[in-house]
Amino acid sequence: MNANKMIIREVEFGGDGYREVLAMRDRLLRVPLGLTWSQADLEGEAEQLHFGLYDHDDTLIACVVIKPLDEHNAKLRQMAVDEQYRQIGAGRRLIQGVEDILKQRGFRCIKMDARDTAVGFYRKLGYEIQGDVFTQVTIPHFRMTKVI
Ligand SMILES: CC(C)(COP(=O)(O)OP(=O)(O)OC[C@H]1O[C@@H](n2cnc3c(N)ncnc32)[C@H](O)[C@@H]1OP(=O)(O)O)[C@@H](O)C(=O)NCCC(=O)NCCS
User: Any residues with Cβ below 6 Å from ligand 1, and which?
Assistant: First the structure.
């Protein structure tokens, strides 16, 4: 499968696309940690940007949420690729495509709290660690940033 042929779509908060993405986030990011959604997790999502990566037959492959912090800065959160599509460039395609969209909208810097297991992935995409390790949702994380 060619990740470059996958399509990035912004999904509307509260719609069918959002519900599909939310189910994927739950399955890939919450259930493996024995966690479920709390109201606090989803608070503010109406003001955030939701993106899905889709195959040509509309299968959802990966997702990510962008929280605008101010005019130029955004926080990347809830990044996940379906297990059966990992290591084929889908994550890179989604992040790079979303970076292009954010650049066009005037954003200049992306920050995130990255799981330690994903730091190597983000490094390959140009993100740099800032500061020390900290614990979030029970696992070690690092703050990472990139000027886009
Ligand atoms: C981390 C994750 C998003 C990577 O997505 P992916 O589609 O498998 O990554 P890609 O295939 O686009 O990989 C791009 C490059 O990063 C490397 N890479 C991928 N996952 C990596 C990891 N966990 N650690 C180090 N390097 C990694 C790939 O080998 C590839 O390197 P190359 O260019 O030298 O070939 C995916 O494994 C995932 O969803 N994991 C579970 C959820 C998660 O941890 N999300 C991040 C929360 S902060």
Answer: 28-29, 79-81, 86-92, 114-115, 117-118, 120-121, 124
